[in-house]
UniProtKB/TrEMBL annotation:
<protein>
    <recommendedName>
        <fullName>VOC domain-containing protein</fullName>
    </recommendedName>
</protein>
<dbReference type="InterPro" id="IPR004360">
    <property type="entry name" value="Glyas_Fos-R_dOase_dom"/>
</dbReference>
<dbReference type="InterPro" id="IPR037523">
    <property type="entry name" value="VOC_core"/>
</dbReference>
<feature type="domain" description="VOC">
    <location>
        <begin position="8"/>
        <end position="139"/>
    </location>
</feature>
<dbReference type="Pfam" id="PF00903">
    <property type="entry name" value="Glyoxalase"/>
</dbReference>
<dbReference type="InterPro" id="IPR029068">
    <property type="entry name" value="Glyas_Bleomycin-R_OHBP_Dase"/>
</dbReference>
Amino acid sequence: MPVNIGATLNHISRESSDIRRLADFYKEIFGFEEIEAPNFGEFKVIWLNLPGAFALHLIERNPGTKLPEGPYSTTSPTADPSHLPRGHHICFTVSNFDSFLQTLKEKGIQTFQRSLPDGKVKQVFFFDPDGNGLEVASRRDE
């Protein structure tokens, strides 16, 4: 049996060639707040906090990197959000799923939606501007 060390999630990091664009997306879509970030000198960072949840550290991508943005690049053949239920993604829960879904539609964000077989949880999958997979699930009591 594992020893209980009191681990909690501190932050998730995302590398990007445009950390400002990515920060604005997470602030606008999920309500992250920009917080003070240290000066790393050779590269820029933006730190975001989702109150009561976790921090997101956006790190400037090394300009010499030849890999595409995100695990599923928007230029990749797997940019279809229907691949995300089994792919790499971060999942959020929102207080009003239908209102959130309407916001995504108004912003023209391509989504894939489904409900679990018991019908109690609705899910929507989509990508951030760098091609990182995201899921939003409804709360069971909605």
